[in-house]
């Protein structure tokens, strides 16, 4: 890869492979792996990679393909690519896996990416390694600091900072009857409740009217939730989704929070990214209404007129996944006691989904979905008189 005034390291070496190289650690543990290096006696930079899977197959030739059980444990990328360009690439088992000694400590599921992007992003990685390890200015430091892909559009976007400077975090309020709208809570807005138990997991779903204009969402979301439970703890699982004109929903992102670990870190939090301390659990008082700030993982989408988007709140992650990537870690956690979860969304408890709008939604959503009725219909005189009498 090259530009007008820069170029990455060219392919100019053969590859020598050293198998079962042992690296002793200070505590006596020995890490074992393979080293792929250029066929030269000159000193070269080293790229070190570690994984807990079968080391013998990490460097096997492969064609790009979607994520699967057969591909999920491939973590190294192609070490021959880097070795031919002047780097030694070590691929080692972490402690307690493969031939490495010691005790393995699981750190959760590995990051999952379509087609294992170590293969797709080799050239970009080479630009980075060349700059920092080989003293080769490949020009990327003069480019925008942020580059992101918007699924469904086939387009990349660049920006000088993150979150994107044009972001307008917009509150979409939760209302009774499952409405999600920018309109503030109405005086008659009350609560929405659902049951959760080992025998069944209820849910609360709130959906916007059909959009009347294109709306782009890029960035982290937050669900500000005023809720209570009849139990001494609760698990909140939040799913943000889009919905097409036929009612087919597609998951956009997820968030989660344990009610007893809702203590915020004020110094590390931002309005669009709450951070929780997770230092201790504070038992929840049954029936007590509390405010929860639930972070939702960064999402990117471009919604078209006629589409809707919504948020689903549950106390268990038991939704059938649309694919293997989104099925990772789903269904593993649920309370073993029955409870009623109550979500408040009145004037004093403005539960809302805070959405990073980066383009569009200037007019906002309309309850009508932008469709005018065929006739004016009767004037609701009785309802207007009742509201006037109530002082609203």
What does this structure look like?
It is built from 4 helices and 18 strands. It is mainly beta. A hairpin with a 5-residue loop joins strand 7 and strand 8. It is elongated, with a radius of gyration of 26 Å. The model has no long low-confidence stretch (mean pLDDT 89).
Mean pLDDT: 89
- Report the count of strand segments: 18
Cα gyration radius (Å): 26 Å
Low-confidence stretches: none
Name of the top-level CATH class of the largest domain: Mainly Beta
CATH superfamily of the largest domain: Galactose-binding domain-like
Features:
single chain; 392 residues; mainly beta; Jelly Rolls; 2 domains; eight-stranded antiparallel β-sheet; four-stranded mixed β-sheet; 4 helices; 18 strands; 8% helix; 34% strand; elongated
Layout of helices and strands:
Blueprint: E1 15-24, E2 30-38, E3 46-51, H1 79-83, E4 88-93, H2 117-120, H3 122-133, E5 146-150, E6 155-159, E7 168-174, E8 180-181, E9 191-197, E10 200-201, E11 203-207, E12 215-229, E13 235-243, E14 249-258, E15 290-303, E16 308-314, E17 339-344, E18 352-360, H4 381-389
Parallel strand pairs: 3-4
Antiparallel strand pairs: 1-2, 2-4, 5-6, 7-8, 7-18, 9-10, 9-17, 11-16, 12-15, 12-17, 12-18, 13-14, 13-16
In short:
With 392 residues, this protein is mostly beta strands.
């Amino acid at each position: 890869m090259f530009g007008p005034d820069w170029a990455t390291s060219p392919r100019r070496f053969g590859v020598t492979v050293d198998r079962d190289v042992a690296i002793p650690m200070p505590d006596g543990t020995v890490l074992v792996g393979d080293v792929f290096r250029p066929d030269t006696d000159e000193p070269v930079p080293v790229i070190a990679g570690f994984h807990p899977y079968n080391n013998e197959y990490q460097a096997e030739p492969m064609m790009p393909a979607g994520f699967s059980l057969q591909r999920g444990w491939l973590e190294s990328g192609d070490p021959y690519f880097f070795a031919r360009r002047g780097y030694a690439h070590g691929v080692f088992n972490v402690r307690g896996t493969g031939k490495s000694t010691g005790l393995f400590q699981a750190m959760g599921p590995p990051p999952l990416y379509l087609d294992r992007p170590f293969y797709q992003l080799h050239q970009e990685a080479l630009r980075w390694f060349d700059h920092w390890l080989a003293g080769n200015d490949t020009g990327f430091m003069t480019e925008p600091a942020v580059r992101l892909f918007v699924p469904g559009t086939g387009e990349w976007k660049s920006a000088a900072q993150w979150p994107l400077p044009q972001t307008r975090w917009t509150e979409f309020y939760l209302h009774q009857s499952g409405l999600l709208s920018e309109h503030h809570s109405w005086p008659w807005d009350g609560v929405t409740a659902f049951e959760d138990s080992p025998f069944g997991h209820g849910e609360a779903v709130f959906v916007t009217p059909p959009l009347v204009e294109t709306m782009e969402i890029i960035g982290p979301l937050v669900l500000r939730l005023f809720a209570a439970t009849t139990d001494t703890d609760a698990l909140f699982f939040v799913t943000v989704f889009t919905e097409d004109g036929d009612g087919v929903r597609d998951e956009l992102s997820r968030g989660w929070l344990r009610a007893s670990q809702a203590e915020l870190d004020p110094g590390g939090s931002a309005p669009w990214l709450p951070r929780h301390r997770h230092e201790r659990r504070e038992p929840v008082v049954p029936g007590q209404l509390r405010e929860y700030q639930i972070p939702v993982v960064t999402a990117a989408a471009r919604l078209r007129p006629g589409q809707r988007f919504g948020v689903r709140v549950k106390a268990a992650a038991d939704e059938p996944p649309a694919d293997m990537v989104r099925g990772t870690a789903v269904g593993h956690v649920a309370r073993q006691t029955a409870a009623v979860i109550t979500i408040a969304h009145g004037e004093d408890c403005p539960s809302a989904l805070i959405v990073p709008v980066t383009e569009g939604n200037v007019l906002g959503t309309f309850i009508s979905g932008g469709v005018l009725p065929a006739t004016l219909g009767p004037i609701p005189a009785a309802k207007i008189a009742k509201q006037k009498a109530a002082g609203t």
